[in-house]
Amino acid sequence: MATNKNAQLRYQVLDRCFGDFKHKYTIDELIDKVNDKLHDLYGTEVGVRQIREDIKYMRDRVTYNAPIVAYRLEGKKCYYRYSDSDFSIFKNELSVEDVNNLRSTIDMLSRYRGLPTNAWLEEIISNLEYRFGIKPNSENLISFEQNDQLKGLENLSGLIDAVMNHTTLSVHYKTYKGVEFIHTIYPYYIKEYNNRWFLFGMGEEVGDIENLALDRIVEYSISNKSFKPNVTTDFSTYFDDVIGVSKPKSDVKVENIKLRFTDNRFPYVLSKPLHHTQTIVEGESNTIQIEVRPTRELDQIIFSFIPDIEVLSPDWYRASITEKIKENLEKYSSMKV
């Protein structure tokens, strides 16, 4: 049985009824109690079959192992109640600190509620609320950077499921240059960078790890090919030698890149390092160094600091950035005022 927000609400209502030793709830009364809540929140209702399935699910030893007993009333009717008055499937031993931390987490997650692309998150938040009886703060106190117009987010939930459940995919992809292809992908990992999401997996056609931007996935479907598990790539360290998500070719080696900043910008770079390898070379001259493989994401970072940054070494990379600056300057110089 799928555990969705409706199911969690049904379990919460049933749990309270089974733990109420002042009232004897028959199956019809249980249906009424559940439907009252469902109708108020979601405008839906369930019947006797669903409630009986819910009771079966709650009794299951692997899930809640709830001691639900059917007691005989007069005639053929029964009422349902826990045999243990202290039992609850939602009973927890959370401390005050635990509750406050959980409420803060729900507050942060709730920031993304209401977006069609984040429907999958609604289920997670609802489960937390129903499970622990904790509601988020009604005040709008926290804001996160996000791009509501980004394409492909509607696929995020399904792709996460594919990664977690080891499901082979057939992906129709369109590059930024308009080239389209369909590849069989064994999905291994999903990463967010710069407000965009990327799927990493073994591409059967290329025989190597592929990086697919979600906003470039035209469509995907489940393939009938057997899944090939990841036995080559440790994604916990896969990005250690780069900035961003692009992995350059094997002949692009790790470089010791030295960067000098202006007095005004240097404290910012110290407070927010460009990379985990960042170290100070010379504090008086505002110089740092990072050890990475140069990528277009590194170029973007450097250009975001202009005019407060200078690439000192290696010489070839300094020359590369210099050439890009010249090309950009020519575009501005050619403009007629």
Task: Describe what you observe in this structure.
The chain has 337 residues and is α+β, with helices and mostly antiparallel strands. Helices cover 34% and strands 22% of the residues. The chain has helices at 5-18, 27-42, 48-59, 96-110, 119-132, 156-164, 266-271, 296-304, 315-333; strands at 25-26, 68-72, 78-82, 169-174, 180-193, 196-203, 208-213, 217-222, 255-261, 279-282, 287-292, 309-313. It has a five-stranded antiparallel sheet with strand order 7-6-5-4-8. Strands 10-11-9-12 form a four-stranded antiparallel sheet, with helices on one face.
Present the secondary structure layout.
Elements: H1 5-18, E1 25-26, H2 27-42, H3 48-59, E2 68-72, E3 78-82, H4 96-110, H5 119-132, H6 156-164, E4 169-174, E5 180-193, E6 196-203, E7 208-213, E8 217-222, E9 255-261, H7 266-271, E10 279-282, E11 287-292, H8 296-304, E12 309-313, H9 315-333
Antiparallel strand pairs: 1-3, 2-3, 4-5, 4-8, 5-6, 6-7, 9-11, 9-12, 10-11
Helix pairs in contact: 1-2, 1-3, 1-5, 4-5
Low-confidence stretches: none
Radius of gyration: 28 Å
Give the H and E element order. HEHHEEHHHEEEEEEHEEHEH
Distance linking N and C termini: 67 Å
Describe this protein with a few key phrases:
about 35% helix; elongated; 9 helices; 4-stranded antiparallel sheet; alpha+beta; about 325 residues; 5-stranded antiparallel sheet
